[in-house]
Structures are given as structure tokens and as C-alpha cells.
Design a protein that fits this description.
The complex is a heterodimer of chains A (114) and B (116). Chain A is mainly β and 114 residues long. In chain A, 0% of the residues lie in helices and 53% in strands. In chain A, strands 2, 4, 5, 9, 10 and 11 form a six-stranded mixed sheet that branches. In chain A, strands 1-3-8-7-6 form a five-stranded antiparallel sheet, with no helix packed on it. Chain B is built from no helices and eleven strands. Chain B starts with a strand and ends with a strand. Classes of the chains: A mainly beta (114), B mainly beta (116). Chains A and B meet through strand 4, strand 5, strand 9 and strand 10 of A and strand 4, strand 5, strand 9 and strand 10 of B.
């Protein structure tokens, strides 16, 4: 039973345009959400996070939106750059349950075309 | 500051053999985690140490897996005996404050384990 789902395995976007990556979750106990970026043969690198008390968090070109009622979050990258080409993982945790573990989605491979 | 390091980067073993993976967390990080990614699927939690204590081992697949963190520094994950389904990439991660649930976890580059 997958609690965090990334239904798009891949996405291609032109350089300079917006990339939108989506993530859905089922566990209403999740209260902290993160996006990680992963290049081949490297470990995941933290990108941006959001707690459940917020609906938006922005860091430079990266913005994460959280819609708790829909149990949905998205990552917007504007403008997209070729160096953004990587696999993006959505992750969630339920800190108020006393656990620190992350539950990850299966990832979305983003390709930014020059 | 050095990041999370893992050794070896790759390991190829025969079914039934034993393999030990090592993780060195970021210095000063109390929390250490093991995760595994099998065949391009999601990254799955295995266990969590706070210093030398196992805080959560709910993700450990079975008793063929043994994790230790003696002295609260580096950690080892031993698989004995290895089975074909144990193949995958094993990631280690660390985070700083034992009381802070919302600190992001920093991941190592992973160990790719192939069991033949």
C-alpha cells in the first residue's frame, strides 16, 4: 500500500518554461513534506520542504504547494534549466506520531530540453 | 564539512554470502537512517538510530538484516545470508538534532548491492 504516490514517471519541459511535478498522499497523519532531487549514481539531495501548517513555501526558482484537503502537493520550477534534469522524489513524514522516517514516492524523471 | 559517506559503492556477491555495508554520517548528527531502493521503485525506510540506540526498525525486511551503530558514530548493515531480492541500492542518511523531527535528512551516495 503506497502512501505517497507520484503518478507521472517522467516529464519533459523546454528550458525556460515551468516544470510542475505532482505528488499525492493518503495518510492524513503526514505533517511534513519534502522534495529531493537525485542525479544518477548519487544520493538524493534535499531541495525544499513544507510543513502542514503552510500551503506554500518558496526558495528561489523552487516553490512547493500543499493542498491538505486534496492530500496533494506539487513542486514548481521556474524557469527550468537543463541542470534541473534529474529524478525528483516526494517524501512525507508524520512527526507528531513520533517517527522521523520518510515515506517516499517512486520518483518523477524530469528532462529539461535546451 | 564532509557529507554522509558509504562504503563500498558497489558490491556483487553470490546468493548465500554475507555482505556488510558501512555508513559514516555527518559529524555531530545524532540521527542515522538506512533506506533501500529496489529496481527503480520508491526509496523505502529500513531503520533509524538515535546515537547508538535503534529508535525505529519497522522497515527491516527480516532477521537476515542486522544493523549496528556502536558508539553512536558510524553504522553497519549486515545481510546474512543474502538472497536475490536483497539486490538494490542501500542509502544511509543522517540528520542533526535528536529532538527535532523536522530536520531534513542528508543522504549518502548509496551502496549498490547485486546478489547473483
Amino acid at each position: 500500500d503506497q502512501q505517497v504516490k507520484q503518478n507521472s514517471p517522467s516529464l519533459s519541459v523546454q528550458e525556460g518554461r515551468i516544470s510542475i511535478l505532482n505528488c499525492d498522499y493518503t495518510n492524513s497523519m503526514f505533517d511534513y513534506f519534502l522534495w529531493y532531487k537525485k542525479y544518477p549514481a548519487e544520493g538524493p539531495t534535499f531541495l525544499i520542504s513544507i510543513s502542514s501548517i503552510k500551503d506554500k513555501n518558496e526558495d528561489g526558482r523552487f516553490t512547493v504547494f500543499l493542498n491538505k484537503s486534496a492530500k496533494h502537493l506539487s513542486l514548481h520550477i521556474v524557469p527550468s534549466q537543463p541542470g534541473d534534469s534529474a529524478v525528483y522524489f516526494c517524501a512525507a513524514s508524520a512527526g507528531t506520531s513520533g517517527t522521523y522516517k520518510y515515506i517516499f514516492g517512486t520518483g518523477t524523471r524530469l528532462k529539461v530540453l535546451a | 564539512e564532509a557529507g554522509v559517506t558509504q562504503f563500498p559503492s558497489h558490491s556483487v556477491i553470490e546468493k548465500g554470502q554475507t555482505v556488510t555495508l558501512r555508513c559514516d554520517p555527518i559529524s555531530g548528527h545524532d540521527n542515522l537512517y538506512w533506506y533501500r531502493r529496489v529496481m527503480g521503485k520508491e526509496i523505502k525506510f529500513l531503520l533509524h538510530f538515535v546515537k547508538e540506540s535503534k529508535q525505529d526498525e519497522s522497515g527491516m525486511p527480516n532477521n537476515r538484516f542486522l544493523a549496528e551503530r556502536t558508539g553512536g558514530t558510524y553504522s553497519t548493515l549486515k545481510v546474512q545470508p543474502a538472497e536475490l531480492e536483497d539486490s538494490g541500492v542501500y542509502f544511509c542518511a543522517s540528520s542533526q538534532d535528536r529532538f527535532a523531527v523536522y530536520n531534513e535528512q542528508f543522504f549518502g551516495p548509496g551502496t549498490r548491492l547485486t546478489v547473483l
